[in-house]
Each structure stands twice: as C-alpha cells, then as structure tokens.
Design brief:
This protein is α/β, with parallel strands linked by helices. It has a single domain, classed as 4-Layer Sandwich (Purple Acid Phosphatase, chain A, domain 2). An 8-stranded mixed β-sheet has the order 2-3-7-8-9-10-12-11, covered by helices on one side. It has a 7-stranded mixed β-sheet with strand order 1-6-5-4-13-14-15, with helices on one face. The longest helix is centred in the first third of the chain and has 16 residues. It starts with a strand and ends with a strand. About 6% of the residues have low confidence.
C-alpha cells in the first residue's frame, strides 16, 4: 500500500483482502470534517539541506498552515509523488516528516505516493513502520481511499529513482482492474504521479507513463472510472480521453517555466455527479489563485 500517515485519533481503518481500504470513520466527526473535500498536492521536492526560509519548504509549510487553521478539516490530503528533492536521501524524508507533523497533530489524514525522485527503500529506512508486511503487489505501493462521493485508487508509477519515465506494470494493472471491480459502488478517481501519454497537452511530455495505453484499457472499460489525477509536469492543465477527465495539478515546490505556470495546490470538492477544483497558489496575486473549475462526470 502507499505510504500512509493516518491520524489514528480521528480515523478508523478497514483492511480487506487484496487491497488496503482506508475508509472515513463515524459521522460523529461531521461537525469538524468536510468529508467531500480532499486537498491535492504533488512534487513537494523536499530536501535535507534546504534553508527554512527558501521557497520549496516554505511553499509546503504554507499549505500545512492553511490546513491546520481550518475549522472544518478535509477528508484527507493526498501528496502525489516526488516527495524528495532529487534522489530520495534519508534527510529529505526526515525533513518532510517534520514539515507534515502539524497535520498529524491536527488529526488530518495524509496519504503519500511515490514519484521518480523518490526511493522506496530509503523512505522505509527512515519510517520503518510504513513498510507493508505483505505487499499486495511486490515493490509497489497501492491502495484505495474511500470518501462518501468517490473512491481514490492510489497507484505507484515509480519505475526507478531518477528515471523520468514511469510505469505501472502488468501486476499492478491486474490489481487495479480487480480493485475497480470490487469497489464499483461509487465513482472512481485514479491517482498516480506520472502523466498519461494521451489525452491532451500531457501527451507532449515524453516523461510520462510508458504503459499509458494499457492503463486506459483498464480504465475506459469501466464506466465508474471518472478521472485520472497526476503531477510530474510542474504545470496545470485539464484534458479528457475516452470520457475520463485527466487532471494535471500544479507542483507545490517549483515550476519549470514561471511565465506559464506557478506553484500551489488544489482543493477538490466532490459531489455525486462531479468534482469542483479550486487552485490555490503560493503567490496570492497570481491569476490562478482561487480559480475554480466545475467538472461534471462525462459518463
């Protein structure tokens, strides 16, 4: 399963055969939790030696401070890969854990996936308790996170540390198909770090998923799959392929071209028939800040 940093004081986990399912607990928390809201971050790129006041850790600290200050907390926070600065050194993950600690203290669930700048074994050396005793798919971190209006399927697209292209592999795709079939009770949103090489602008970024076509064979054949969320490109875009939204969320750390993009995070509000995405930017004056897009499910 992915590296999960759950707030056990506020959440209750349901473990099922063949997949790790993280379900929201009792409605007693309805007065303090917006169960239809999920915060989406990616590409945090936290390094051990980054000065406290430098942009990258400051950007992550900014969203953490916002989350902690909320009267109603989100259902969870998803941080979608490239957690570490370059190649996943132990100090990178120690620094990341320090930055995220206020979320755990505030009782906010955090779910992490890995990207091409991460290193699985190093992460587990730093946080040994996160190593699954019996992985569902060997050397992959996969699970399902349930919310009232959608199930999130967290995938592992890390092929090898510092290799730009990502891949899911036949075993993970087989698991995904079975997990989607087992959880067809509500819309499915698939989350992985790498962009698919199809469906709009992300197709032009060659560092995406090598097995994009094979992935879409799994997704398109299941009508309850509504969206695919990724990062990796350090930009923001929206596309669609075969009735499935492709949502490219902005990086929290830095951008490749400041003239066309910026840093930030995304607030996703789910409903029975779609998703509303609000971009929050680290620069309050940026035109994208608080820009909201309503995306009805297409099928």
């Amino acid at each position: 399963m992915p590296i999960h940093l759950p707030a056990l004081s506020r959440r209750q986990f349901l473990m099922t055969t063949g997949a790790s399912v993280l379900a929201l607990s009792s409605p007693v928390w309805a007065d303090v939790t917006e169960r239809d809201v999920v915060y989406l971050l990616n590409d945090t790129h936290i390094g051990e030696k980054q000065p406290a006041d430098s942009p990258v850790p400051t950007h992550l600290r900014q969203v953490v401070e916002e989350l902690v200050a909320l009267r109603q907390k989100p259902a969870c926070v998803l941080i979608n890969g490239d957690l570490a600065a370059k190649d996943g050194q132990p100090g990178d993950y120690r620094h990341l854990a320090e930055l995220l600690a206020p979320l755990y203290d505030a009782g906010i669930d955090v779910h992490l996936t890995l990207g091409n700048h991460d290193n699985r074994e190093t992460f587990y050396e730093v946080m040994a308790e996160q190593r699954p005793e019996q992985p569902v798919v060997e050397s992959r971190h996969i699970s399902v996170v349930q919310t009232p209006h959608a199930n999130f399927f967290l995938l592992d697209s890390l092929q090898k540390t510092m290799v730009t292209q990502g891949t899911l592999g036949a075993d993970q795709l087989q698991w995904l198909g079975s997990a989607l079939d087992a959880h067809a009770d509500r819309p499915a949103i698939v989350v992985a770090h790498h962009n698919p090489r199809l469906g709009g602008d992300p197709i032009h970024f060659p560092g995406g998923l090598i097995d994009s076509v094979e992935l879409w064979d799994v997704l398109a054949s299941r009508p309850h799959v509504k969206a695919y969320v990724h990062g990796h490109i350090h930009d923001r875009s929206y596309a669609e392929h075969e009735g499935i939204h492709i949502i490219n969320t902005p990086a929290t750390s830095y951008v490749g071209n400041p003239k066309q993009s910026t840093t930030g995070w995304t607030v996703a509000r789910l409903s029975a028939d779609g998703i509303q995405l609000t971009t929050r930017t680290t620069d309050d004056a940026h035109p994208w800040n608080k820009d909201t897009r309503r995306m009805p499910w297409l099928r």
